[in-house]
Structure formats: structure tokens, C-alpha cells
Amino acid sequence: MKKRLALNFVFIFTVLFFCSASWGLDEIVEKKTFTLEEFTLISGKKLAPVKIGYETYGALASTKDNVILICHYYSGNSHAAGKYAATDKVPGYWDKIIGPGKPFDTTKYFIVSSDTLSNMNPKNPKVITTGPASNDPKTGKPYGMSFPMVTIRDFVNLQYELLKSLGVKKLQVVSGASMGGIQSYEWAVAYPDFVERIIPVIATPKTDGWLIGWLKLWGEPIKMDPNWNNGDYYGKEEPVAGKTYSLALITLSALWSDWADQLYARKWADNQKNPYEAMDNVFLADTALFKRAAGRSQMADANSMLYLNKANALFDISQGFDTYEAALKSIKAKILMVGADTDILFTATQLKQHFDAFQKAGLDVSFFELKTGFGHLGGVLDISQASERITKFLGE
Predict the structure, then answer these.
(1) Catalytic choice (154, 175, 376, 384)
(2) What domains can you pick out in the chain, each with its CATH number?
(3) Which of 1, 111, 261, 294 has its CA 20 to 30 A from that of 145?
(4) Exposed, middle or buried, 23 (CB in 10 Å: 0-12/13-18/19+)?
């Protein structure tokens, strides 16, 4: 078991955090672009124009209601299934459950997966997003910290515009992991007559103080890097050290306590440098985490990460309602909550509290718990454990 976990962890980080071990959608997929000439945010501020990328799998029925929307996690993008080219080493992150005969069956459903505003990886050529790194048409220069604040509701509203442009009349399911899961909850309160079911994975319907604290810690290393320069670093030396430290924290909090022991235990970073003999002599666990974070930081934009942190911290489905209970009573969708037993970001205790509140409100809600050695990442890496339950839920 330990050997299997260790090999899996090596593979995870080789592919920048996420991988899939089986092929659900054996086809080449195309990244597409959705553009609006003007989009009004919840704040009342406007973005003109606005762009996000998206992918589709399967075919839209003549009734235009056989649709599943997949929302991505914090560090992800719209590439949920399939490959962009036959030579790609791994498919999209949820390929295990998307494809013919899989829970999200592409012979039955038309599946749409989109990027969000302020995606954290705008340097990735396969990410299409409008965010702080985008050029402000008024100045011709990157927005930086002048970019308006965005919320999860803004992400959802833009996805709604995308779906309308595709002619979609109804969503059979909205699903996603982590930040994708909280978008699923937001969909249920934002468009209750448009959504039949939601499957939020490793997520809760509002961000509590515990996660707000983590989000703060994720962002502070960026701000402490002098190269951040209050967000004015485009065309200059970027806050690479800050991004790297932030991504190391994100990695550590997204995993379970066993991960370092499985890979590194107490091995030295350098076999010739005993950590007991000098302050600069360190353990392998010290260096490996930051090396991997440094690799991931090459695609990331520091300001975009800060904007995502803020959007996640602000999330609460009761925003705009008098009470949390009132927000729950507005939901019409059937709900399958999926948690992970070792998740320290959205804990089993937190999910149980919200599950109880949903039941008390009379909602049609059920719960499935993943048993995983991957912590929060179990919602991506071990999602196939929920395959049978998801398939059953779609038929209920």
C-alpha cells in the first residue's frame, strides 16, 4: 500500500498536481473561446470585452437539455477530459468519470467545461481567461490590481452566458471539485429553475473561518515578495519567490499528513550534508516541496492568485438572502455531496454540518464519502470511487 501511494505521489507532481490513471474519453478535444463584448460584474463594474475558454464533450440533444456543466478547481482549468493531442501524456483531470459508459456518459450527455475569470495560470497557452494579467483596453497595459474584484457568482453568471450562447435550455447536473464544488452550490441558488442536480465535490456551501485563514496564508508570501510591488510587476521581475512559497503552502494543505512520509520520510536532501551538523543542511521534504512549487509557478500569475483567494474567501450562498436558511429554501436541485475523509480544507465535520442543515431545510440531499490517502486531492484523484453512486444519482 505504501509503495503504491509513493508512486502515485511522484506521478501527481510530475503532471503538476493532477493526473488520471484510466481513460474515460478516448478522443481529441478542442479548446474553444467564448467572448462577450461587455459583462457586468456583481459589483456593478463592467469588463469589456471578457473571454473565457471552454471545452465540450458529447453532443447536444435537439431538446438542448442533456447538459452537464463541469466547474474547475482553484489551480485547474477547463481541461476535464480527453487530450488535446495524441502525444499528450495524460488526459483531463476528471477523465475517469467522463466518457462513454462513465458516470458522465458522453453518449447521453453534452458536457461543457469552462475556465473561470482570473484563472491563476494565464501563462498556460491552453488557458483562456480575463483577469489581472489581461490588458486593460483603456490603457493597453495589464490591469494588475486595478482589475475589479470578482466573485464566485460572477464566474457562474459568465458560465450562464456561455451556455445561453450554445443554446442550452437546462442543466441536468452541475459538478466540480473544490472551487468547482462551490460553483456548483452557487449555481443552485443563482439559477434554481435551470439546474436539475448538483454534485459538489470536496466543497461546502460557504467558506468558513478555517478556509479563510488558509486563503490568507496562501496569499501573504506573494505580498511579502518585494517584486510584487503592489501588483505592478508586468514587464519587470516577477514575484517568483512569493508565488513559489504560496504554491508550496497550497500543495501541503491540499494533501494528507502521510504524503511526505510516503515519499521522503527523514531522508536528507543531500547525502553528504547531515542536517544535525549545520543549519543549512536540510531534509529532502524541505527541498522537494519547493522544487515542485517552483515548477508550477512558471504558469501562474501572482495577482490572479490573489483575486482567486479573495473570490473563494467571499463565497457564501446566503449572500443576497436574509439568512442561510432562506438561501437553502431557494434551492430546487437534487444534491449529492461528495467529501473526502482526509480532507483538511473542507473537513468531514464541516460537510456533515451542512448536510444536516440541508436535510433540516427539506432538501433532497445525499452524501458520499471518499476513502483516500490524498487528502483534499482525493476529490480529483480518487473520484472514481463515487462512480456507481454518481450514476445512480443521475438516474434518480
Answers:
(1) 376
(2) 207-314 (1.10.1740.110)
(3) 294
(4) middle
